[in-house]
Amino acid sequence: MSKTEKEPMFSAKNIKLLSTPLNDENPITVQVLGICSALAVTVKLEPAVVLAVAVVAVMGAANVIISLLRKTIPSRIRIIVQLVVIASLVILVDQVLKAFLYDVSRQLSVFVGLIITNCIIMGRLEAFALGNRVWPSFLDGIGNAAGYGWILIVVAFFRELLGSGTLWDYPVMEKLGLFNIGYENNGFMILPPMALITVGVIIWVQRSRNRKLIESK
Amino acid sequence: MEGLINIFVRSVFIDNMVFAYFLGMCSYLAVSKTVSTANGLGIAVVFVLGITVPVNYLIENYFLSAGAMAWIGSGFETVDLSFLSFIMFIAVIASMVQLVEMTVEKFAPALYSSLGIFLPLIAVNCAILGGSLFMQEREYANIAEAASFGLGSGAGFYLAIVGIAAIREKIRYSNVPGPLRGLGITFIVTGLMGIAFMSFMGISL
After folding, report:
1. Beta bridge partners of A167
2. List of residues 6+ apart from B148 with CB closer than 8 A
3. How many C-alpha atoms does B133 have within 13 Å on its Cβ side?
4. Chain segment A22-69, per-residue pLDDT in tens
5. How close is the nearest chain B Cα to the Cα of A100, in Å?
6. What is the pLDDT of residues B59-103, one digit of tens each?
7. Which pLDDT tens digit goes with each residue over B181-205?
8. Residue B199: its pLDDT value, please?
9. Burial class (CB in 10 A: 0-12, 13-18, 19+), A187
10. Residues A144, A59: contact at Cβ < 8 Å?
11. Residue A150 region, left (φ>0) first, then alpha (ψ -120 to 50), else beta?
C-alpha cells in the first residue's frame, strides 16, 4: 500500500485513465455503452449539457463508493448492491434537478431515472471500480462520463443548430441573417432517427482519423 | 377491449421503444449480430416487460403515489412516497428477473436453455426500466392497460432487434467503407429504420 501511495496524484498512468475514454476507449463510439439515454436528450444543447453533468456526478460518486466497499461486497450480490448505490445517487440528482432546474427536469422526463440502467455506469463499476483503488476509480468514472458527455454535446450542438437554428436558445441563424438569403431550418434534424445518423457520422469521422479503431470484417 | 388493442398497437409501432425513445439500445446493438440470438433476447424482453410493468403499476398505485396508501388506514392518506419510485422499480425488476429465471429453469428447461444468458442481462436493460417509468408518466387507468402497454413495448423491441439482426446478417456481404464497418453502419441503418417507423406517426388511435 505504501508503495502506491507515493504515486503522484496526476501520474502518467492516472492521466491516461482520464484521457483514453475521450477517444480510444470512448464509451459511446467504441465500447457501445450508454447509448439509450444519449440519443433522446440531444434535440437541444441545454438538456444534453445538464444530463452530461448529471452523469459525471453520478458516475464519479458511484465509482468512489463501490471502490471503497469493494472488499466488503460479496460477489454474488454485487449487482444488487451496485444498483442500489446508483439508484440512491440518481434520486439525489433527480431531486436537485427538480428543485433548481425544473424546466430542464421536465424535458429530460424519464431519462434522469434511466441513468440507473445506463450501462456505462454498471459497466465501469464492474470492470474497474470493483478491482481498483479509490482515486484511480474516481478518475476512471469522470473520464468515462466525460467521454460520454462530449459525444452528447456534439450531437446536441449539430441537432439544435441545424434543426432549430438556435444554440442554447440563442437564435444564431437569425442573427447571422441567413433566413434573409433563403436559408431554412432542417426540421428533420429534430426527429429521433437523425440522432442515430448523427452518431453514425461521428463514428465515421472518428474512425477515419483514428484508423486502429476500424473493425475487422 | 378496443382501448387495450389501441394501446398495444400504439406501443408496438408509434411509440416503439427502440426507434422513438432509443431505449434498450445497448443490448439492441450488442446482441443483434445473428437472428437466433436476437430472437432469444427479444422473447425474453417481451416476457419480462409483460410481467414487470403490471407489477410496478400495482406498486405505484397502491404504495408510492400521493395518497395511494389510503386503503391501509386514515393515517396514511397524506403519505407521498413517489420519490422512492426509481429504487422500488429497479428492485422489483431485478427480483422479478431472478424469479422469472428460476421459474423458467424449473418448468421449461428447453426455453431456459434458449434464453440462457439473456435473462440476467435484462435487469439492466433500459427498455425494462423505461417501460415502468413511461407507465408511471402516462398514468394508465387500470392494470389491463398497463399490461397491454408492457406487452406492446416488448413486442416493439422484438420487432426492432430481429429486423436489425436480419439486416446485419446481409450487410456482412456488402462492401462497407472501413471506418463505418460494424457499429457505424448499424447506427445509420437503425436511423433509416426509425425513419420508416415514423410513417406510423400520423395514425391516430
Report:
1. A170
2. B4, B5, B7, B8, B11
3. 23
4. 777 777 777 777 777 667 778 788 888 888 888 888 888 988 988 888
5. 16
6. 888 887 777 677 777 777 777 777 788 788 888 888 888 787 787
7. 878 888 888 888 888 888 887 776 6
8. 83
9. exposed
10. yes
11. alpha
What interface predicted TM-score (ipTM) does this complex get? 0.74
Residue B97 touches partner A, C-beta closer than 8 Å: no
Pick from A35, A79, A193: which is nearest to B198 by CB? A193
A160-163 long-range Cβ contacts below 8 angstroms, 24+ apart: A160/A43, A160/A44, A160/A45, A162/A186, A162/A189, A163/A43, A163/A187, A163/A188, A163/A189, A163/A190, A163/A194
Q: Please tell me the distance from the alpha carbon of residue B196 to that of residue B79, in angstroms, as a whole number.
A: 46
B156 pLDDT band, cuts 50/70/90, is very high
Grid cell locating B39? 430472437
Residues 112-141 on A with a CB inside 8 Å of B are: 113-114, 116-119, 122
| ∠ CA B71-B75-B76, rounded to 5° | 50
Contact list in A for residue B91 (CB cut-off 8 A) is 80, 83-84
The pLDDT, as a whole number, for residue A8 is 65
Contact status of A37 with chain B (Cβ, < 8 Å): yes
User: How many angstroms separate the CA atoms of B149 and B163, rounded?
Assistant: 21
A153 Cβ contact partners less than 8 Å away, ≥ 6 residues apart? A45, A48, A49, A52
Question: For chain A, how many residues are written?
Answer: 217
CB-closest option in B84, B90, B191 to A197: B191
Q: Report the distance separating Cα B138 and Cα A102, nearest Å.
A: 19
Rg from Cα positions in chain A: 19
The domain segmentation of chain A, as residue ranges, is 29-208
B130 shares contact with chain A (CB less than 8 Å): yes
